[in-house]
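Comment thread on ticket #2218

A.B. wrote:
> Attaching the input chain for the structure job we discussed in standup.
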Amino acid sequence: MKWKTNLDKAAPAIEAARAIITEKFKEAISHASGVYEEDVEAVHDYRVALRRLWAALKVFEYLFDDKDELRQLLRKTRKLARRLGTVRDLDVMIEQLKTLKNSATEAEIQLLDLLIEDCKRKKKKRFARLVKFMKSLEAESFDHEFIRFFSSHSNQQNLRPNIGSEVF
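C.D. wrote:
> Ran it. Output below, let me know if you need it in another format.
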């Protein structure tokens, strides 16, 4: 994986953590518009990007003092990833069922069509929940809250003193 962030080797660990987490967050939310357009690949890409973000958050969480706010951010990203996951799982199921139709008998095709329609109904409902949750995050300015917390220009209240200030 190639990092887009230019990191100074002499910078404290906290600055590297902030840059990596912010980069991963921006990468994740870049897929939101595709999700709203019901792009199957955007759902997948958003989910994968959130999993990478969540991994970075878990690796670097020890550097941040404000554990309550950090937990809230983690909780919201996990909830979003779960909602994306339920939609993605149904997308995959629908495609697998369609593939099975290629070698199925006429009776099996009829059953597969029923299963596909059931999955599509479930997906529509799950997608509506996903969009509602995404809009609630937008309404509460989650993206600004997230960036503010991890911004290197913040008031440093969330930084543990003397952690990561040494050069390795």
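A.B. wrote:
> Thanks. Noting for the ticket: Residues 65 and 158 are 5 Å apart (CA to CA).
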